[in-house]
From TrEMBL:
One Pfam family from the record: 4HBT_3C
Similarity annotation: Belongs to the C/M/P thioester hydrolase family.
One annotated GO molecular function: fatty acyl-CoA hydrolase activity
Domain Acyl-CoA thioesterase-like N-terminal HotDog: 30-108
Keyword Transferase: no
Alphabetically ordered keywords of this record: Hydrolase
Residues covered by the Acyl-CoA thioesterase-like C-terminal domain: 137-259
Lineage of origin: Bacteria, Bacillati, Actinomycetota, Actinomycetes, Mycobacteriales
Name of the molecule in the record: Palmitoyl-CoA hydrolase
GO biological process annotation, one example: fatty acid catabolic process
Length: 262
């Protein structure tokens, strides 16, 4: 058998009915769990309870408290509804008895219909982007091309991204990969455009995260991720994002609110 991809390995749960458990990998000196990881695993647990014909449609997650690496996380899935076309799941992720994430996820059986998305002029053309390495939070799993002016340790939008390795041709695993990478970028983008990003700027954390899965996602193909600041007040910043393939087709829409104590 072929070796599992890194994301598929992160979705290898111990399962007892609708309860799932996994031990998070050790990540060197990192202490706080990457939000994209726990969101991807929550979607994976939810999807494991849904008929194969229904694909991820959207998710809405709240990061209740920070988790840690090298420890077990338990995922409990509640089957809210199973309809002919849609299925709805609620996932609670806990670590050491404390809730760290709550998620609602919806799944939809593909239907024929109109297919339209607006034509958008790229905020960063692929040929104008430059390779970037040493990005925080599992950046070693991806190839990134960012603006030439981006010298930070973060991924600053707009940027181009793809997985370094091929990912299994499985719609749920690929949706989990998209969920994972969608958390690279929103926190910096939640700052007002007038505030320069610095590593010592203040305390930042993701508060909630939403994704709408519009079209099939090919993780090893290049995608352009554009995020923009939509609001900032009360120490909270809202970022809205869009993920496009190389043809300019909208693959997914993202929204995240982040805490910024500056």
């Amino acid at each position: 058998m072929a070796a599992l991809s890194w994301i598929a390995q992160l979705l290898q749960f111990d399962r007892d009915g609708d309860d799932f458990c996994i031990r998070e990998p050790r990540r060197g000196a990192a202490e706080r769990l990457f939000g994209g990881l726990i969101a991807a695993q929550s979607l994976g647990a939810a999807g494991a309870t849904v008929d194969d014909g229904k694909l991820p449609q959207s998710l809405h997650a709240y990061f209740v408290r920070g988790g840690r690496y090298d420890a077990e996380v338990e995922f409990h899935v509640d089957r809210i509804r199973d309809g002919r076309a849609f299925a709805t799941r609620h996932v609670t992720a806990s670590q050491n008895g404390a809730v760290i994430l709550e998620m609602m996820a919806s799944f939809h059986e593909p239907e024929p219909g109109l297919d339209w998305s607006p034509e958008i002029t790229p905020a960063l053309e692929f040929d104008a982007a430059v390779p970037k390495v040493d990005v925080m939070d599992f950046g070693d799993k991806f190839d990134l091309r960012t603006m030439p002016t981006d010298h930070t340790e973060f991924a600053i939008s707009p940027f181009w991204i793809r997985t370094q390795d091929e990912i299994e041709d499985d719609p749920l695993i690929r949706a989990c990969t998209l969920t994972f990478l969608s958390d690279l970028g929103p926190v910096p983008a939640a700052l007002p455009p007038t505030v320069p990003l610095r590593s010592d700027l203040g305390f930042a954390a993701s508060l909630d995260h939403s994704i709408w899965f519009h079209r099939p996602f090919r993780p090893h193909g290049w995608h352009r991720y554009e995020l923009r600041s939509a609001n900032h007040n009360d120490s909270r910043g809202l970022a809205r994002g869009s993920l496009y393939d190389t043809a300019g087709t909208l693959v997914a829409s993202v929204s995240q609110e982040a805490l910024w104590r500056i």
